[in-house]
User: Fold these one by one.
Assistant:
Number 1:
Amino acid sequence: MRPRRLFLKQAAAIGMTLLSSSSLTAAPPNEKKKTVPILLDTDIGTDVDDAFALALILASPELDLRGVTTVGTDPQTRALLVCRFLTAVGRSDIPVAAGAPPQPVEEIEKQGRYATSDGSRSSHTLQPVKETAVAFLYQRLKEDRKEWTLLAIGPLTNLARLLREHPDCKPWIKRIVLMAGSVRVGSKGQAPPEPEWNVRCDIPAAQAVFASGIPLVVAPLDATTMLKLEETQRRRFFQAKTPLTEQVRRLYELWGERTPTLYDPLAVALCFEERFCTMEDLRLEVDAQGKTRIVKGTSNARVATAIRRDDFLTWYVDRVAKQPALIHPQPKPGY
Ligand SMILES: [Ca+2]
C-alpha cells in the first residue's frame, strides 16, 4: 500500500500545514497518482546545479525520493550538506549515505562550508547513515524490490561499484536516469562532442554503467549545456524566498559564480517529464577517452538530444518557486 505509507510518512515528516496546501495531498490517498520511487546519487557541493536538482525533486509530487548518496571528494561533507538541506526544508525523513573512498577528485571547499557552518551539527539536524553509499543502495533495493529509478547526477563511481559488487540487484532497477555524456555537441553547444565531466571523472565507471544492460535515460550536454539560468529567471527564483529557494540561494552564494547551468535538473525532469526534449533511442558506449559514442546495435539509452530551453527554464522556476512556502522542519531522530 505505497500511497497510504507515503501519506503517513509525509504527515510525520512535514506536518499538517504543508499537508493542507500540498498538491501531493489534494486528492484522497486512493486517488493519488503513482509516484516514481527514486534513489539519488549526487556530487552536490562542486557545481551548484545539484542543489537546483535537489530542489526540483523535492518540489515534484511525481517523485518519491527514498534516499540520497554522495560521490566525489569528501563524500562525508557532501552527505552532511544534503542532511542540512533536507532538515532545513522539513524532509529529514530521507536517509543520506556517503560514498566510500576512493572517490574522483572534485572541488568541495566553497559549498562545503554550508555543511559545517554553525548549527549544522545540532541534535536536530539529520545525520548520514553509517552504511556506505553502495551498502545503503543495495540494502534499499533489496528490502523493497520495486521498480526503482536510480538518478545519477555525478560521476558514476558509486553506481558502477554497486553493479560490480552486487550484480543481483540489476533486476530491481527499472532504469538509470543520468546527466552524462556529450553525443553530438560539446559544452559550447556545437560539434564536436567532448568527454563530459561526469564521464571524464571516472571513465571505467561510466563504461560499466553504459554497458550494464540496464535501460538508461540520458541528459547529455546536447540538451543541457544551454540551460543557463540568467538574471531575470534567477531573480524570479530567489525572490520566492521559500525554504527550498533559500537553501539553494545559500549554496549559490557560496558557489560564488554568476550564472548556473541547470544540467542536473534536466535529469530530474526526465524521471517523469519528456515534453521539453527531443528524445532519441540510441546505443551509446563510452570510449577510453571518455567520449559517449553512438554505435550500431540495439538501443541502450533514451537520450535527450535537443531541448526547448526557455520553456524548460520557465517550467523549472515556476515549479520550484511556487512550492508551498511554509515547510516546518520536523526532524525525525534515529538516523
Ligand atoms: Ca552534479
Note: The beta strands are 36-42, 63-70, 96-98, 148-153, 173-179, 216-219, 277-282, 284-286, 292-294, 301-307.
Number 2:
Amino acid sequence: MSDEKPLLKVTIDGVQIEVPEGTTILNAARQVGGNIVPPAMCYYSKLKGSGGKCRTCLVKVSKGSEKDPRPMPKLVPSCSTTVMDGMEVLNTTSPEVLEARKGVVEFLLINHPLDCPVCDQAGECHLQDLGFEHGGAHTRYEEDRRTFERIDIGPYIQLHMNRCILCYRCVFAAEQLTNGRVHGVINRGDHAEISTYIQQAIDGDFYGNIIDVCPVGALTDKTFRFKSRVWFTKPMDAHRDCDKCSGKTAVWVAGNDVLRVTGRKDAYGEVEEFICNTCRFDKKSLSDWTIEGPRHIDRHSVIGMNHYELAAPKETQYLTNKIIE
Ligand code: SF4
Ligand code: FES
C-alpha cells in the first residue's frame, strides 16, 4: 500500500484546488494566485511561527468540510487555518470579509502616521497597498497617535517605532537568523513596542534581513535612507561570489550607482533567500556585481509597473559593459 496521503479538495471563491493535508487556506490560495489570495501583513512563509497577529487575512468558511458541512461561526485567519476535505472558503466574494478587512485596515492605521511622502518604504509598502485596496477614505480616530523617538539598531538600521504595526516578523527573523537575539516586543496592549531593550545593536551576519521582512517603513536601511524614491531606481537581478550567502540579490540602481541591495522578493513581497549583511550593506558598487538583467516585480504596486523594463536590453547591455570596463 502506498504511504501517499490523499489530497484534500478546497474551494476558494469558486476555484477548486487539491492540496496536501496541513496546508493553510492562505497557502492553498497562493497555489492559484491572483485575486483569491488574501492579503497577509504578518505571515511570512520563510519564517517559522509567523502569522496570526494582524487579521488582514480573514476569510469566511461557508462549508467546514465534506464530513461536517456546517459553516464556521466566525471569520478565520487564513494564514493559520488548515484546509479540510470539501471545505468552501469565501474571500473577495464575501461582503462580510471585505467589511471586516476594512475594519482591520482602519485599526492598523490608528497609530500609523501618514508620512508616506517622506518614508523610504513608500512605493513598496504593504500597508500602503492594503489601505489603497481595502481602506476607507477617512479616519474616525480622534485621539493622539502614539509617538516614539527614532532608535538606531546598530550602524545600518533605524527603527521608526511610530510606523510599526507589531506584526512580529522582525522578531522571528532576528530569532531565526542571528545569534543571541536582543530585540523583541516589550510591554503589552497599547504600550507594546519593538525594542532592542536598553538599546543594544543587533548583531550577526544576517540581521539586515529584518529590513526586508518589515511590511512597513518601521525598519529602514540607513545606507539607503532618503537617497531616492524606490520607483526612481531600477531593480536588477545580480549576483556575486559570497562565502556567507548565495550572493543572489536585487540591486536597485540609479545611473551608475547601486543605491541599495535587497533580497529577491516574490509576488507576496517575501524574499526568495535571505542575504548576508556584506552583500546588503557593503557592496554598493556596480563592479561588485554581475548584473543578470532587470528584475520583474510581480507584486502590484507603483514599482510593479516595471517601467524600467521597457529600456531593458540597452540598460542591461550598458550595465554589463560598465562592469567589463
Ligand atoms: S518593526 Fe516592522 S517587522 Fe518588526 S514588528 Fe514592526 S512592522 Fe513588523
Ligand atoms: S497574515 Fe494572517 S493574521 Fe496576519
Note: The helical segments are 25-32, 95-108, 126-134, 169-177, 209-213, 277-282, 312-324.
